[in-house]
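explain this:

___
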Amino acid sequence: MNLENPNIVLQRHWPVNIIIEDVNITDEDNQELIRIGIEHSKEFKHVPDILDPNRKGYNLLDVEHPVIDKFKAYIKSRVRMMMHAEGFIDPEKYEIEALVVARQHEHGDRSKTHNHRGCDYVGVYYADLDVVNEPGDNFKQPKGRFIFTDPITQRSRALNHTQNVDIVVRPKFMIMHPAYLYHFSEPYLGQKTRYFFTIVVRIAEPIQHPFYKKI
């Protein structure tokens, strides 16, 4: 911004980078990804630890399958894109650690407002669902949208921006964002099962990460 007073420097720092993408995946690979997700997640509960202290985790990236290999490469490329956008000095030298789990929503299911702690980036890939985006009230009526909340929520009401960003999701659609960003999913209004995959990513920086020890 140009200011008349040369002694004043007005700077804007720390933008929030978000990837929103229609994924170029074949119908065959997409259906196979759904099948793998159903098969490998059916024995696991997606509930907080306090509700099931003995629950076990899993990672679909451990599955040996060509579709998983493609999905892994896709995730890695998008994380590198985020790292470049966010100003990593040399993104290619950092190792990327990722975990993918399969999820399902039935009619009326939702995800409450949350962020993700202990990681750097989070993504969600929507493989299949009914798109619900009927015209009308977008403020009071849920439509199964994915919604981000401004990380600096206490801004002036006079600002020309919205506190929430609404995204109408669709099949073969991916969103990736920093883990600190609060988000939620409105109640799903579709009739068929919504199949989606949650992606959790950590960046293993090369200076300290190799020297961590279990204690």
Summary: DSSP finds two helices and nine strands in the chain. The chain has one domain: 19-211. The longest strand covers residues 95-105.
